[in-house]
Amino acid sequence: MSVNKGVIGFACAYTPLPLIRAAGFESYRVLPNVDCPDQAGRLLHDNLCPHVKRVLDRAMSGMIPDLKGMVFMNSCDSMRRLYDAWKAVKTDMNIVLIDLPSVSTNASIGFFRDELERLSRTIEQWGGTAIDDASLAGSIGLYNRVASLFTALREKSRRSELKGDSAALQEAYNRASIASPEEAIAFLEAILDEVADTKKGEPGVPVYLFGNVLPEPEAFTLFESCGAHIVSDDLCTGSRLFTAIEPGGGDILLNMARGILGRPPCARTFSAERPGSLGGDVAAGAVKAGARGVIGYTAKFCDPYIARLPGVRESLRREGIPFLLLEGDCTLRSIGQHRTRIEAFVEMMR
């Protein structure tokens, strides 16, 4: 499938990017890391997710590409409010809201499969190109290749063999989120072929990083300047976006629904069998990565994370893993204010 219909925007890591490409569009993640005037407060409450507000600021300031449409995932109440506000701001733009189940059961996977079919029909109308199984399978294959390259890149970063360290890895995530999969494959392969600079001095303390939105490479530079070495992450602007989808057989949309809902969960996802699963997952991820400490970074007013953080603290306490929680407004200024706390946390683990 040649991609020439234009660009469709998105703002959530659960967005089914292969569907967008199979319809002949390119995808573009509207990240909150672009400086623009604060205008979202005219439509949204002050105590609302700063990620959502900064994405809306970009739209209201005209600091987004000329989009053919915008796909919103109904992943939390703040994202639903972003969809409502976007309709008021971009009255002439094609937009669609897709419901995202908060559990991964056979029933919810079937429901999400139907939502993916609704998305398919919608973006087919936007571009006039029908999505068939062959084009969708080809798109899934390309994004699976992107996911495998990021797996290799994360491992190289963990071993301190990546030029530019974790900041370079985050920059690669950002680039891939606004590029076609073919472009992403090309520059990721080039990054993997680069030889890292020889490092001297004491290695950083291995730290596991989790949370929701942290797209600024400069934030990772800050962590490392404080003596931390990010050995693994679980962020929606990091490792959660590009994960492989098993092709399987039969209904390709059902396989895609199962693959997307089977990704490492964020705080808005829960398991009826394991109600405190996020804490256990964070602790298990930290142990697997060989981290000596965990840093959590969450956007202010994020209710799903506020509700889950006590369980995360308890799970890490049981494992004997130190935990530092940072909160910000999706600006470098806010995270820069935590430098002293980060330095003290890292020093405690030496």
How would you summarize what this structure contains?
The protein is built from 13 helices and eight strands.
Helices and strands in order:
Layout: E1 7-10, H1 17-22, E2 26-29, H2 50-60, E3 69-74, H3 77-89, E4 95-99, H4 106-127, H5 133-158, H6 165-176, H7 181-193, E5 205-211, H8 217-225, E6 228-234, H9 252-261, H10 277-289, E7 293-299, H11 303-319, E8 323-328, H12 332-336, H13 339-349
Parallel strand pairs: 1-2, 1-3, 3-4, 5-6, 5-7, 7-8
Describe the structure.
The protein is of the alpha/beta class and 350 residues long. The chain has a domain at 7-131: Rossmann fold, CATH 3.40.50. Helix content is 48%, strand content 13%. The strands form two sheets. A four-stranded parallel sheet has the order 2-1-3-4, sandwiched between helices. α8 links the parallel β5 and β6 (228-234).
